[in-house]
Amino acid sequence: MTTSRTSPVRLALIGRPVSHSLSPRIFAELGRLLGRRVSYKALRVEDAALEAVVRGFRGAGFNVTIPHKRAVMPLLDALTPEARAIGAVNAVRFSERGLIGHNTDAAGFLDALPRKAKDAVVFGAGGAARAVAYALGESGARSVRIVARSPGKARSLALEFGKLFPRTRFSAGAPMRADVWVNATPLGMKGFPRKSPAPRKLACGFAFDLVYGGKTPFLKDASAAGIGSADGLDMLVCQALRGWEFWRGALGARRARLRDALLEKLRCL
Ligand code: NAP
Question: Largest alpha-carbon pair distance within the chain?
């Protein structure tokens, strides 16, 4: 597709570190696929500079990553319900109402989940686990069990989301049999222990790992047991597309085609 001569859509990523991020590649490729000029800059931002960078940014919007996903919240004028409930912002848009903070991980997770989960187990109780728990509550799951190394965090997450989604039974404790088990910890990721947060013998119909960039021990255990699985790359692409929609408007039927094309490109890297 030819790229239009109109002014570029200005986007950025704010975080630390940002050099490893796949987002600049995703948005460059997305611009090419849409025939739009896209400028997506990865900005390494120290804590002390966050406010000045946020207030000084001029463009359609920006992504936020570690360690600023919570710290950016008080600097914004409004939050979407997802961002407020999850307690983390990964996308910010400029609008007439000022800076709006959003979280695209929940929608990205649901987009990438190949089948609806009735009963789910989520390993971890951090930001990603909260996004997954939100997505499961929002999609009407029957039960969600939170399993985390800090039992207090697991319990308070289950309590909080149980109130938010009264039709879903949220609980904390040991893993239990479910349709889907989700790794929402960094275990298996480069720089973290090469181990699984789950028992070796998985008791689920599908294993979903938010970690991407190689087969994790969690996914290896799923393969060994003949259980279907997905890594986090598809979710990464899906949350990026949701980010584009937040900044630029709905993609409609194009979203599925763009997702496939972006995934194919990233899998070849
Ligand atoms: P986070 O807020 O730091 O939370 C990490 C969670 O994992 C916490 O519950 C933490 O427990 C737990 N944990 C950390 N190290 C552990 C260990 N050695 N053993 C057991 N549990 C451990 O991080 P996050 O933002 O939720 O991200 C989690 C993972 O999801 C990362 O790998 C991230 O890259 C990935 N992610 C992927 C996508 C995607 O699109 N694919 C999107 C978002 C996040 P404590 O609270 O006790 O420390």
Answer: 56
